[in-house]
Fold:
Amino acid sequence: MPGFNLFTHIAFAFAIFLLSVALTVFMIHFVRLMDVPNNRSSHAHPVPKSGGVGIVLAFLAGCLTIYFGASSARIDDLYFWGFFLGALGVAVVSLIDDVTQKSFLAKIYTQVLGIGALLVAGGVLSKLSLPMVGEVALGGWGYAITFIWMLGLANSYNFMDGLDGLAGGVGAIAACFLCAIAWSQNSYFVYMVSYALAASIAGFLCFNFPPARIFMGDVGSAFIGFVFAALAVIGASFDFGHLSFYIVPLLLFHFIFDTLFTFMRRVARGEKFYVAHRSHLYQLLNRMGYGHRTVALYHYGVTIAQGIGAFVLVQLPPANRALAFVPFLAFQSIYAWWVLRRAMALRLL
Structure:
């Protein structure tokens, strides 16, 4: 990166981390938005659920600093503001959801507004490399694919935020890997935004790692999912290094697999997929007797493995990059089979 100064970047990340810590402490002590346990909860006592506000504000402050202060880590103004306003919009409507407890379908309707901001600004996936085919121009289909991808990942991340430290730790690790890969591929905007995201989440994680003193709530989980989804599109289409779109899906593959697998299983059983439940694979693992810390650390380990896989992915020819998912799909399939088999033996299903 032209004019790169390692000390400046470390200091910037540390400043975002401290801001996130300060905001999270403020939310713990002065904002009494509580998550009261019910029959689906994995905690026994009320816990503040406004921690995502600290993540959001620290991250957006970092983004504004990058926009006004960085010389090379830039994308077109229209794309930046579409991304920034879209992320802010998702955070605001998710915070309202945390306060008012809207239905799942109401959440979907409001998330569409934030995603629409990026689409209107032109933040659309324009091409995709497919195995045995090569690069395919998406044309008008790019809008539909981008919309489904962003809505899907925002909600997948939200669904996976059900245990102490799980979504926060995975997000911090995945953001660090995305930061390192973006640096290696000269995608300077994604590089800087990724470490701003990692620092923002890390400040919150100090208080969310088991046992959690605060939860991130929808305002944090849907926001993080949106940011990751948007960075996949921006990195592939508008950043200097043109990152492979597949990097983010691979980094978060265990979250995506758990969500899709649970969705398909519930639909096959005739259950309403939008009704709250405790049958995600990670939830079943917890209900089997594995504690929050054990389940979180397991997912951290898988995230690291997927991060290494993402480094391998970018070394492959574009037409073969989707094949990097094969070993992780095999692993997740075996994991799902084992979890369901154990859950049925324990009469959890």
